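Hey, sorry to bother you again with one of my protein questions. A protein chain has come my way and I'm curious about its shape. It would help a lot if you went through both lines with me. I owe you a coffee for this, so here goes:
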Amino acid sequence: MATSNYSPWALEQALAFLRRNLRRFPFERVVSHVFPLERISEGFRQADWMQRQGDPVRISRAAVSM
């Protein structure tokens, strides 16, 4: 979940929603790749919004794991 534009209370509510609905919605299918924090630069390089024109999309949604 993106965190740069949200207040702390909104993030708390969003995380609570995810916890309550883990079995109801297939959240794991939203993320196509997971990168550990040490490989965050690789994740940015491969992300679709960083691609050069004509390059195939390699990642649809990435997550950083800590």
Q: What stands out?
A: The radius of gyration is 14 Å. Residues 35 and 64 are 5 Å apart (CA to CA). DSSP finds two helices and two strands in the chain.
